[in-house]
Amino acid sequence: MDRKTTLYIKNCTKDTLLIELSEADTLVNWQFWGKQAADVVSPNDTDEVDIAFNKAIIGSFALPDSTIYIDPYIYSHYDTCYLYTIKWNIAKKYSMDEIRAKKLYDRRTVTKKNFHNRLFEYKK
Predict the structure, then answer these.
(1) Under a CB-based contact definition with an 8 Å cutoff, are residues 64 and 70 in contact?
(2) Most buried residue among 26, 77, 115, 117 by CB atoms closer than 10 A?
(3) What is the side-by-side strand order in the sheet with 67-70?
(4) How are beta strands 7-11 and 119-122 bridged, if at all?
């Protein structure tokens, strides 16, 4: 029997963040957060983008000094992943296109080895 080891990311900042761990080396649209990009079709309708944003918040919303769960499955296929963080006040104010164009996010390269005792502490 295979055993999955849960991974966690702790928000060690004073900001409320949206956090995503992805195999994509570019910041993906809201509808791809928490999913494999190849498995999702990109909607163009504004209502669907709003719905995607609301769904992206689930599981990625991290208050200061809180911890979120990360599915370790991503590391069974990729050795290196990218950790994206967007401040909550930025995510509510700007579209994803503006966030990308203005580089209003942080991106870090992480490997499974960066998770000490299954925990990655995100610090500025």
Answers:
(1) no
(2) 115
(3) 67-70, 7-11, 119-122
(4) parallel
